[in-house]
Specification:
347 residues; alpha/beta; UDP-N-acetylmuramoyl-L-alanine:D-glutamate ligase; 36% helix; globular
Amino acid sequence: MTQDPSPQPSSHDPSTLQVAVAGEALIDLIRREDGSYLPCLGGALYNLSRALSRQGVGTHYLNPLSRDRFGRELTAQLKADGVQLAVPEAVPQVTSLAVVNLDAQGHPDYAFYREGVADRAITAAGLNAACQALPGLQVVCSGALALDARDTALYLPWLQAQRAAGRCVVVDANLRPSVMPDLQTYRVAVHAALAHAHIIKVSDEDLHHLDVPGKDVLDRARWLLEDNPACELLALTLGAEGAWLLQRSGAGCFAKEAAPLRVVDTVGAGDSFLAGLLAFLLRQAQASAATHFARELAGLSAETCQRALRHALASASLCVQEQGCVPPSWDVASAWAVEHRAQGRVV
């Protein structure tokens, strides 16, 4: 089992930065050149939980984990990274599996095995109860496989309730259309979740699968932002071509690594990017003594957005140079952002 048992410490006290994450935890079986498969701990929301905690954010993972061997490995890694478990007791359901084949550029193609699995053994009421037990909670995150139309009744009422409670809702679209039985129904479910988000993260591939109109990828991203009036920030990732951070005000900024990276694979890159973005924004809000994180998003300066985007990009860049998802710490990502200053512009 490939895991990273030694978390990279942050010099920051995360006690007042509280995020809850709900979504899949699974084992990525990654195909190697010799045809064998390497088991790695994964799942977009599981990866995000680890990445947030390593960046100094107090993180709570809301889904249960299995008592099988894979589930014990997933649990051990979360604990090693400092993530708090909302459901500390293991459940009898088995662990989800994802078979991952990588193309020549290191991009993953997935096949999922998720019937009767531990991370889906939840209810909307249970998710809300777990969040209610966290009085300092500021942000909730979901997305990826949690946006499966078959799980809408589990996650959508929870997102609605958390937004109504005044918490910042973050949704990473992270579409997996190849494993969804009905693409149109899936699109509807994804758009329903995005409608509750203060912060949306999408890739250029997500926009294509969502069938968003526009003359180019940036135009489509702006359309998605405008189509979701609750959203204040939209992060658009373009792989090796960089990333955009768009604001509801119409402002936006772009960043791209100044030199090509030695990419091992891209597993967990988007999750590390989102963790870096949220960690930066949360620390910024804390430094300015903001009392309501979601409301502060509307007033972010262009400079803050550019710095946040560069930190997010650095977090992803470090991840793609590792096998599997190995998220960087806040200090390591911050150092990379300074030493490898990304190209950028504000529009």
